[in-house]
Every structure is written in structure tokens, then in C-alpha cells.
Amino acid sequence: MNTVSERVSHPLAMSHESRQVLVQWLKSNGTRQISEPDARRTLIERYPADLFSEAELQALWDVMKG
Fold it and tell me: CA 63 to CA 52: how far, in whole Å?
């Protein structure tokens, strides 16, 4: 039996060329920092205007921050 021809490549195996393309893409795009969402802005955008007073919004913000 020829065991070399019977080998099944790993599903995540990549060619050298594919790895180089990935490396180039990561160099170009992979270093961006993902900022954390602003919870206060999320509250303002998610709920209708004037649903919360400024004091209520501040209290919610304080609770969310811990």
C-alpha cells in the first residue's frame, strides 16, 4: 500500500501561497483595535428620546459601570 496517497489532508491545511496571502492581509488589517461600545450612547440610541431624564440616564450609567 502506498500510505502517502492515502493521507487525507487536514481540513485547516493551507498552501504556502494561502498562508502568505493571509499574512499580508493580517499585516494590513489585523492590527486595528476594536473599541468597546459606549453604553451611554447605546442607551440614548436604543430608547426613544425623552424616555429617561438626564438624572435617570446618569443613574443607569452609574449602575452599568458598577
Answer: 15
CA distance linking residue 66 with residue 61, whole number of Å: 9
With cut-offs at 50, 70 and 90, classify the pLDDT of residue 31: low
Which set of grid coordinates corresponds to residue 34? Answer: 476594536
Query: Residue 61: which of 42, 47, 48, 46 has the closest Cα?
Result: 42
Q: Where are the domains of the chain?
A: 38-66
DSSP string, 2-57: -HHHH----TT---HHHHHHHHHHHHHHTTPPPPPP-HHHHHHHHS-TTSS-HHHH
Q: What are phi and psi of 51, to 5 degrees?
A: -70, -40
Mean pLDDT computed over 17-27: 87
